[in-house]
Amino acid sequence: MATVSLQDVLAGINQSATSVVDDVIPTISDEYETSLGGQSIFKLLLFLLALMCCVFGVVGNLAVIIAVIYFSNLRNITNYFIVSLAVADITVCIGVMPLAAYQDFIANYTWPLTGFCCNIWLAIGSLSCLASIWNLCLVSLDRYLAVSRPVWYAKKRKLKVVFILILCSWMIASTLSSSSLFTSFSTDGQRENVVQYCILNLESNFVITSALITFFAPALFIIFCYALILKYVMKLSGRVSSHDDHTTIQTTSSHLSSKDIPSGSNKASSDTETGMVVNSKLPVKIQDVPKDICTSGSEELQLRSDVTAATAREVEQESQFSARGTSKSEDVRGATMGYRMKVSRSKERKASLVIGVVVITFMICWMPYFIVYVVRSVCEVSLHLYQAFAWLAWMNSAINPVIYTIFNKGFRSAFTKMIAFFRNSF
């Protein structure tokens, strides 16, 4: 039986995808071909759309940074990681996308600058990608610790440590991306001053290693962190549901009246959750009166009986007051701490949701590019296919501000106030 190698399988998949992309894109382009300097209206529209995305990405991410700096309710640890991510997105929108748009849509896949500039451009692209994914790794770990160990992490979570971690992520990204300055080639494999198309063209071993370090290993770490977060949240939800059922039973029991409790019962019934006290009594010992005292007259016996009854009532009232006061003070403290913990956990879960959406979007946008990046080192890949997935990855930088606006109430309110301020200013 004939064996099929992995390279043959990848080549078959690449050929199918290439045929589809190469058939569709030129056909659409040819339909809009005009005599505007040899360029098609279709490519011109794509170029303008790319520039609009650049502007939108820069403005949106700048708004994120300004919002965190200006609005005190947004100045927290998680949002500082988001600011670092916004800086990486601005780097893509300014340093990568404009030149890519010119090369792909105006210059007919021809690099307009020198080979050294090509290497710098590729290094900037690698830097922004690496900084983004390393920041996502840090914020995913931050989310896991904040959700799973809130008390312990609140003591360890210092602003200085966060800034050091962010700085380290950028330093690691800079070190790894600097390799592009020495390993980038033109499409014909020659280091020339004039480059036909600025694109990474590396040996397969280096490509696989760099892809693992740059994307796949950090992606697995992020997925692992969010799997643990999901597991913990589901476990916590089960505990909360069980606690609610227990509280309902206790509250129902606390509404029993004193006539429902058997006479002479020495048990004190109180509900520490609601602060309600039900017929709390202390035992009163009744002794037999000697015969000689009884014969001295009914008035003395009546007097002793009244004193005993009054003493019993006083002791019972003091018991009820003491039990009620202690229970209420403990209930207030417990309810306050419980409410604060509940609000804190709710905020952490909402923050984890926002970061989760950011992570999923990042994976969807960048994973196809890195798959093609690896496949290209094994077999030939269509330039149109590579171009399409590269633009999908870069578009992620303009999407993140939209995610913050939709899923984060704090950012949404801040953006609304900023827009109102600029409207009133002009």
TrEMBL record:
<feature type="transmembrane region" description="Helical">
    <location>
        <begin position="120"/>
        <end position="141"/>
    </location>
</feature>
<feature type="transmembrane region" description="Helical">
    <location>
        <begin position="44"/>
        <end position="71"/>
    </location>
</feature>
<feature type="transmembrane region" description="Helical">
    <location>
        <begin position="388"/>
        <end position="407"/>
    </location>
</feature>
<keyword id="KW-0297">G-protein coupled receptor</keyword>
<dbReference type="InterPro" id="IPR000276">
    <property type="entry name" value="GPCR_Rhodpsn"/>
</dbReference>
<keyword id="KW-0472">Membrane</keyword>
<feature type="region of interest" description="Disordered">
    <location>
        <begin position="243"/>
        <end position="273"/>
    </location>
</feature>
<keyword id="KW-1003">Cell membrane</keyword>
<comment type="similarity">
    <text>Belongs to the G-protein coupled receptor 1 family.</text>
</comment>
<dbReference type="InterPro" id="IPR017452">
    <property type="entry name" value="GPCR_Rhodpsn_7TM"/>
</dbReference>
<dbReference type="Pfam" id="PF00001">
    <property type="entry name" value="7tm_1"/>
</dbReference>
<keyword id="KW-0812">Transmembrane</keyword>
<dbReference type="GO" id="GO:0005886">
    <property type="term" value="C:plasma membrane"/>
</dbReference>
<feature type="transmembrane region" description="Helical">
    <location>
        <begin position="206"/>
        <end position="229"/>
    </location>
</feature>
<keyword id="KW-0675">Receptor</keyword>
<feature type="domain" description="G-protein coupled receptors family 1 profile">
    <location>
        <begin position="60"/>
        <end position="404"/>
    </location>
</feature>
<feature type="transmembrane region" description="Helical">
    <location>
        <begin position="161"/>
        <end position="186"/>
    </location>
</feature>
<feature type="compositionally biased region" description="Polar residues">
    <location>
        <begin position="263"/>
        <end position="273"/>
    </location>
</feature>
<feature type="transmembrane region" description="Helical">
    <location>
        <begin position="78"/>
        <end position="100"/>
    </location>
</feature>
<protein>
    <recommendedName>
        <fullName>G-protein coupled receptors family 1 profile domain-containing protein</fullName>
    </recommendedName>
</protein>
<dbReference type="GO" id="GO:0004930">
    <property type="term" value="F:G protein-coupled receptor activity"/>
</dbReference>
<feature type="transmembrane region" description="Helical">
    <location>
        <begin position="351"/>
        <end position="376"/>
    </location>
</feature>
<keyword id="KW-1133">Transmembrane helix</keyword>
<keyword id="KW-0807">Transducer</keyword>
